[in-house]
Design a protein that fits this description.
Elements (H helix, E strand, L loop, with lengths): L1 H16 L7 H23 L4 H4 L17 H17 L7 H21 L14 H15 L10 H14 L9 H16 L4 H13 L1 E3 L2 E2 L10 H19 L5 H21 L21 H8 L9 H16 L59 H6 L14
Antiparallel strand pairs: 1-2
Helix pairs in contact: 2-4, 2-5, 2-13, 4-5, 4-6, 6-8, 8-9, 8-10, 10-11, 10-12, 11-12
């Protein structure tokens, strides 16, 4: 009995502290791409043929066969998938195996968007019914900003005009006083990038409110109140930073706040890295946890944009995020029999989904793959295995620095 306890304890220590062989950065990259494309395939293979609405299930907590979310879930699936895939797609085709794979998914994404924005297509998306289309048009816009050459640059003139026509409809939707303000700001920032013109009022208003809603140490309130959830990563930091970057590009002011936001963004990324336990688990708190590893949007984007703090290396972020993805993927039930994502956090858990979440919503999980936009020669992929903070500290590694809040 004592021998068995000793053996189990030793096995646990080896598992937690990484004494077994660990994959290389390029092996991690291959794994990320395998997971991303597995998630993307049902959406893009169907929508590229104009069959998304025909074949995509719409699962909600209600269990209804035709829930109200059916009106909006398809735009959710496309817009959120584009956010996650865009940085990788933007690397473009080349003669490598990965480059040929990108070429395939660029083509599928272009066909899907053409169908989604073409009023004559059976997959034409809803841009006017309910306020939800504002949310996912904003995610779509964020994806366009992340792939200006390979996606926007490869649209036909007709598709470009269809996209702009849809965004004009989206502008009519009034956001609520929350992270939604950034959706309107993102649409306007994208119109500025695509056309050279925009309405600055929603942008200025969103920036003003988020200045007021900052709570300290890298956290913004979602409205006046602080919400203990992951919306600072799902939406607030990524969209605020991207909007401010576009404003800087077009000399629209807010340089001081832009510099401040980069500092806050980095601090939040630092906190996210520390949330990841030795085995890739992390706190399951707040709304929208069905977005799974999309929780780490900021951490992955910080690596992509070289905004990681000095206390966090790219290698440890790669290894930490790989552990998170593997932790989720190790659980059965994340996909249905046809490969569509199911409601849940770890497997199929419909009861954890809010009423506003449906099958299309779940594709925000792909935001964790933003760092795939870094080339294979980048330090992120071209370095050996490294322990992240949670793994170091629980294994007694003395090389762990103390954590400090930032001011302001």
């Amino acid at each position: 009995m004592k021998k068995n306890i000793f053996t189990c304890t030793l096995f646990l220590l080896i598992s937690l502290c990484g004494y077994s062989q660990n994959p290389s950065g390029l092996e991690d990259r291959t794994y990320w791409i395998t997971v991303l494309t597995k998630i993307a395939d049902p959406v893009l293979e169907n929508m590229s043929k104009g069959e998304l609405k025909k074949n995509m299930p719409v699962e909600t907590i209600s269990g209804a066969l035709n829930p109200p979310n059916t009106r909006t879930t398809h735009l959710e699936a496309l817009g959120r998938l584009l956010v996650g895939m865009a940085p990788w797609l933007e690397l473009g085709p080349d003669e490598t195996e990965e480059g040929r794979l990108r070429s395939k998914y660029i083509r599928l994404m272009l066909l899907s968007i053409d169908n989604g924005f073409n009023p004559e297509s059976p997959d034409y998306l809803n841009f006017v019914v309910t306020r939800q289309p504002l949310v996912d048009a904003a995610f779509f816009c964020q994806g366009i900003l992340r792939a200006p050459k390979q996606i926007w640059g490869n649209f036909s003139d007709k598709t470009r005009q269809n996209v702009l026509n849809a965004l004009q409809q989206i502008r009519k939707i009034k956001p609520i006083e929350s992270n939604w303000l950034l959706f309107s700001a993102m649409v306007e920032a994208t119109l500025l990038e695509l056309t050279g013109e925009c309405n600055m009022e929603p942008v200025n208003y969103a920036i003003m409110r988020f200045k007021d809603w900052y709570k300290g140490d890298g956290w913004y309130g979602d409205g006046v109140d602080l919400h203990m959830d992951y919306y600072n990563s799902y939406v607030i930091h990524p969209m605020l930073l991207d909007v401010l970057e576009v404003m800087q590009k077009y000399a629209k002011g807010e340089d001081e706040f832009y510099q401040l936001e980069k500092k806050r963004f980095s601090r939040y990324a630092e906190q996210q890295e520390r949330m990841i336990s030795p085995d890739g688990a992390y706190p399951v708190i707040g709304r929208s946890i069905a977005y799974r590893f999309g929780t780490f949007h900021v951490l992955s984007q910080a690596a992509l944009k070289d905004l990681l703090p000095v206390s966090v290396t790219k290698a440890q972020v790669r290894c930490a995020l790989t552990a998170v993805i593997k932790k989720h993927m190790s659980v059965k039930g994340n996909f249905d029999a046809d490969g569509w994502l199911t409601l849940g956090f770890a497997g199929h858990q419909p009861q954890i989904a809010e009423r506003y979440i449906s099958t299309g919503s779940l594709y925000l999980c792909t935001a964790a793959f933003a760092a795939l936009g870094l080339s294979t020669i980048d330090e992120f992929w071209n370095t050996s295995y490294a322990e992240w903070t949670g793994k170091k500290i629980w294994c007694g590694n003395p090389d762990v620095k103390l954590d400090k809040a930032i001011k302001p």
